[in-house]
Amino acid sequence: MHEMSEPNTVGRRPPRIFLSYASEDKDVARKITDRLRHNGVQIWFDEYELQTGDSIRNRIQDAIAASDYLVVLLSPNSVRAHWLQSELNSAFSRELTSRDIAILPVLIADCEIPSTLAGRIYLDLRKNFDQGIEWFTQRMSITPDIDFSRLDARSFENLIVEILECQGFSEIQREHSMADKRYDIRASYISTDPFGAEKEEIWIVEVKFYRNARADLNAIHQMVSYIERLPGHYKGLIITNGQLTSAARDWLASAENEHRIEVRIVDGTELKRLLLNNPQLVHRYFHIDTKP
Predict the structure, then answer these.
(1) Residue pLDDT, tens place only, 51-107
(2) Helix H segments across 172-277?
(3) Could you tell me if 282 and 275 are in contact, meaning their C-beta atoms sit under 8 angstroms apart?
């Protein structure tokens, strides 16, 4: 477990949201926008924000760049639109260069979720719109309080252990040693294949707590080298409050392919998304009042 560099604190302010939707879904988008604004959430909605003479493309790019969350309304109308992939690619690029934009899919009609969003936590408004918006508003209200600078290295590691438990990991051992190497956490996870058979996976976890926004590439090099030398099949996991550059992720993808190993990275942006789904942890570790 490591703690590095100088503090990078962020003042408390309402989260800024960019809403992406198909024109055919504008009525639903307007309803969502009005409800969120009524509850104090800052949201960019083109019907309200675009002015005569504005460059639509430039205004949208600027709005995404200035946002904390990109909320994507998913419906048959949006998933077949070319602009959706374009906006997602732009947002992912910014994520990978430490722009710290979290992408939150919102399902408003039955449709196939795009592969770029597969595996992300999404909000389902198809059955109970009012209840879904209330859930979403509550989660948005706690985002300003997820400030990792309030933690120290030990409390950050305690938080990670609880997140792993919430994600279904078990047999979590801290400060474990194997093959003359000491690492932060060893944990098991029961996965299920497409045919229903269960398999135990062993994960080696390194927790990296930084006092600046940029994660250290050395941690990835060390994890790859370590997993490669371990006997049997282990999976590596690095969890950090920092942001990874696109170069770091590209290097990891190449290393995984070359050495036939798996190393997963959860950076600060994804960590915030996980915390949105576990408000009890936000309350416990960031000392704020949240609704249960």
Answers:
(1) 545 444 555 666 676 777 888 889 998 888 877 777 677 666 555 444 567 778 889
(2) 217-229, 246-259, 268-276
(3) yes
Within a domain: residue 292? no
Distance between CA 42 and CA 46 in Å, rounded? Answer: 13
CATH number of the domain that residue 244 is part of: 3.40.1350.10
d(CA 270, CA 239) in angstroms, rounded, equals 9
Name the pairing type of β-strands 235-240 and 198-210: parallel
Q: Which domain holds residue 73?
A: 2-145
The tokens 């009524």 sit on which residue? 38
Count CB-CB contacts under 10 A for residue 174.
16
**262 part of a folded domain:** yes
| DSSP 8-class letter at 53 | T
Question: What is the domain count for the chain?
Answer: 2
Q: Does residue 166 lie within any of the structural domains?
A: yes
DSSP state of 11: -
pTM: 0.74
Cβ pair 103, 272 in contact under 8 A: no
- Chain length of the chain: 292
Helix (H) or strand (E) run with residue 28 in it? helix 26-38
3-state secondary structure at position 8: coil
| Cα of 229 vs its chain's centroid, Å | 30
User: 115 and 158 share a domain?
Assistant: no
Structure tokens, 288:
């704020």
pLDDT digits (tens, 9 = 90+) for 132-161: 888 887 777 787 788 898 899 999 999 999
CATH number of domain containing 45 = 3.40.50.10140
